[in-house]
């Protein structure tokens, strides 16, 4: 029996994504969060007595020139070396951009897989066979896994791969592969990186898993973040998620159905935030709140949304102290019943189309293309402000960013069409 950690997408010293523009934002906590998450990874590895640590790409965050970032990573790897823990890593698309990647000498316990071909390393104490290949450049469009070595007979075989497996829609496509292709390699475990959402890609057969990133960096990377602790006994892996994040992003969607007055919704939000604080286990939280549902309070909320947004921020401070910072508030409610009869006819059909659109991948892709055309028409200084200085402000390739646009457009359209029908 042996244990190992599967982590990915550390993105050390990733930029703040413009949070310093918001009054009250916990900038200092966020700025150090990716480093503290790595420290937690190292402490977990030592306390669990794991045999080795796998890092499935993107230790760094692209064209990052500060060598202190690399030295910090090297110091953490040295702690693992002192504990007798080996590290196997591959370069991801962001690592391939990094100056640090090519200039930093790492401790002897760290093995970085080559970028020009796949390779196999045998971890002698456990007999595990680890196969991998890193990115030589940022854009890799071929299936690297197709040329991974054959499994080592009698060993527990692990594939280490940075990939947008199965064309994962919410991330750019790099080293694409299929679940079927990974299964065909004959390995027992695939440690994947690149997709920041923790998930398993198959229900049976070999484990094919994304660990997700170790620390959320903006509102679209919400929920608990960490790594996977894998225990191998009799050739079978058992997986246990372990949180590493020190600052947590949350997207809360209180359902305002039944709320007759905005104060009713405020009480609901207060309770929801208290629950979030309890679940975060002492971590500070940045919360994006989107109230949904059909309610009597809709008219008052939308008549003065700025007032009620400030009420939400105030109650967060009163109820949680400094535990929760409100990143954004959005009221996506609708009237309890429409004045016009929308049970059938053109308006009912339109409502159905709008509802379906939010989950229609093809429509979201088409919308992304349309918005990209509009984005190119923006004045240069505006494009630079949004895309260069504040990456993440526009997420044309992110369904989580696009869906609220569809919802807002639908509410606006239905509202205009039903004006005067009371």
Question: Can you summarize this structure?
Answer:
The protein has helices at residues 27-31, 33-48, 67-82, 93-97, 99-103, 179-184, 262-280, 298-303, 305-320, 346-357, 361-376, 380-389, 399-418; strands at residues 2-7, 52-55, 86-89, 110-112, 119-123, 128-132, 157-162, 189-193, 199-200, 207-210, 226-233, 236-243, 248-252, 285-294, 324-334. By secondary structure, it is of the alpha/beta class.
Q: Can you lay out the helices and strands and say which pair or pack?
A:
Layout: E1 2-7, H1 27-31, H2 33-48, E2 52-55, H3 67-82, E3 86-89, H4 93-97, H5 99-103, E4 110-112, E5 119-123, E6 128-132, E7 157-162, H6 179-184, E8 189-193, E9 199-200, E10 207-210, E11 226-233, E12 236-243, E13 248-252, H7 262-280, E14 285-294, H8 298-303, H9 305-320, E15 324-334, H10 346-357, H11 361-376, H12 380-389, H13 399-418
Parallel strand pairs: 1-2, 2-3, 3-4, 6-7, 7-8, 8-10, 13-14, 14-15
Antiparallel strand pairs: 1-11, 5-6, 9-10, 11-12
Helix pairs in contact: 2-3, 7-9, 10-13
């Amino acid at each position: 029996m042996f244990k190992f950690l599967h982590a990915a997408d550390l993105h050390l010293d990733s930029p703040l994504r413009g949070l310093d523009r918001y009054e009250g934002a916990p900038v200092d906590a966020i700025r150090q969060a990716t480093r503290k998450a790595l420290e937690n990874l190292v402490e977990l590895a030592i306390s669990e007595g794991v045999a080795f640590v796998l890092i499935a790409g993107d230790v760094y965050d692209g064209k990052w020139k500060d060598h202190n970032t690399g030295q910090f990573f090297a110091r953490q790897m040295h702690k693992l070396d002192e504990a007798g823990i080996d590290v196997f890593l591959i370069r991801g698309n962001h690592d391939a951009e990094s100056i640090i990647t090519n200039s930093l000498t790492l401790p002897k316990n760290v093995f970085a897989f080559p970028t020009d071909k796949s390779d196999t390393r045998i971890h002698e104490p456990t007999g595990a066979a680890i196969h991998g290949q890193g990115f030589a450049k940022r854009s890799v469009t071929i299936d690297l896994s197709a040329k991974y070595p054959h499994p080592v007979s009698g060993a527990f075989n692990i594939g280490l791969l940075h990939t947008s497996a199965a064309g994962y829609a919410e991330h750019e496509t790099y080293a694409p592969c299929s679940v079927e292709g990974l299964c065909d390699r004959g390995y027992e475990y695939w440690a994947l990186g690149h997709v920041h959402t923790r998930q398993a890609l198959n229900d049976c057969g070999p484990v094919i898993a994304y660990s997700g990133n170790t620390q959320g960096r903006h509102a679209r990377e919400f929920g608990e973040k960490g790594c996977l602790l894998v225990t191998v006994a009799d050739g079978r892996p058992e997986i246990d998620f372990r949180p590493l994040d020190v600052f947590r992003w949350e997207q809360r969607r209180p359902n305002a159905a039944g709320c007759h007055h905005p104060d009713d919704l405020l009480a609901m939000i207060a309770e929801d935030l208290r629950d979030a604080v309890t679940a975060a286990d002492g971590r500070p939280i940045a919360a994006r709140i989107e109230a949904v549902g059909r309610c009597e309070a809709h008219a008052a909320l939308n008549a003065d949304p700025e007032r009620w947004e400030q009420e939400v921020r105030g109650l967060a401070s009163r109820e949680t102290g400094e535990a929760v910072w409100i990143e954004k508030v959005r009221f996506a409610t609708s009237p309890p019943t429409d004045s016009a009869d929308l049970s059938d006819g053109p308006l009912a059909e339109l409502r159905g189309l709008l509802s379906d659109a939010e989950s229609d991948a093809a429509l979201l892709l088409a919308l992304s293309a349309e918005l990209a055309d509009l984005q190119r028409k923006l004045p240069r200084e505006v494009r630079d402000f949004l895309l260069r200085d504040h990456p993440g402000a526009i997420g044309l390739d992110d369904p989580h960013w696009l869906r609220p646009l569809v919802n807002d457009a639908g509410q606006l359209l239905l509202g205009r069409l039903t004006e005067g029908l009371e």
